[in-house]
Amino acid sequence: MALAIASYPTAKTNYNHKERLEKMRITTIVGARPQFVKMATVSRAIRGSGGGAITERVIHTGQHYDHNMSASFFDELEIPEPDLNLGISQLDHGAMTGRMMEMIEKDLIAHRPNIALVYGDTNSTLAGALAAAKLGIAVAHVEAGLRSWNRAMPEEINRVLTDHLADLLFCPTQASVANLKNEGITKGAHLTGDVMYDSALYYLGRANKTSSILRRLGLQAGQFALATIHRAENTDDEGRLRAIASSLSALAGSMPLVFAAHPRTRARINAMGIDGILGKTMVIDPAPYLDMIMLESSSRLIITDSGGVQKEAYFFRKPCVTLRNETEWVETVSSGWNRLCSPEPEEFMAKAAEALRQNVEWAPFYGEGNSAGVIAGILAAHG
Q1: Quick check: is 17 catalytic?
Q2: Of 64, 141, 230, 262, which residue is the catalytic one?
Q3: DSSP states of 228-258 as a string?
Q4: Is 32 a member of any domain?
């Protein structure tokens, strides 16, 4: 059953915040590349909404090391490098979250912002929310209300706890608003749309002008499939990873297939001796953001286990097969653009063939591309 299309506020909403702008200080806490992509859009809106009266300090926890997050990455996104990099990564969940809390707390005490702004569902998200809440600093959560209903996923624990700590909850969809209401959270919840849709629209124009990845890889637009796999449920289970490799190999026999392999995924493939199963699959390193946007928007089919890539497939109106048992982005499935699938080759190939034959309508479930401006206005108005 398709979900109803949301009605979103506009970025021009008058929040009557002129006086409060004069003393508004925001500390943004992020730890992974996708969070920086989301942050870039909101930070740009913050800079443009208050004539410089809103100040933003950025803490990068270092949770996910990504060699593509060099100076060129920040140049691509048109954002300054973080004010503080904690360099905390490659620890177990408890140790990582605890270390982050300790160091974030020190910075929050030193700079005492009005609002701590967190994104998504990583350990960095929860650590930032906990540190701020314990200091009596308001917490704002971008991508609030998402639920997979799978408590075995660390991300699910992080997002649920963060939502219950947050003072401002920026919900990307009607379903996320409903999820919060079912948990008794209505105060501070706002239907804003998805800032990733803003990013996709903004950066696609830049990618079309600057990216040469199709030429470099010898690809023709609309004639290839794109795959990304990184979740532990797929990479840490040898049986599932072997099945995924076999599935990708089967699809690569019928069309060019680019597999942008996360370093951890590639390491697991090599350690398990699975690399020989991939057949004709073209395995590449994770692409810089603009190149990835170009690959997604030019593909014929996308295969992933990433929540962000599922949505970007929808934004660019590309059929998607998701190698998971559930998804937080239920609209992509209910609308017919996304299919959940086991990694087994027989089911995978059937789902892929079905996706390639699809002829379904597209609806703006994730807003109208102005979500960051709406969020900036609400942040500025918060007392």
Answers
A1: no
A2: 230
A3: E---HHHHS-HHHHHHHHHHHHHHHTTS-EE
A4: yes
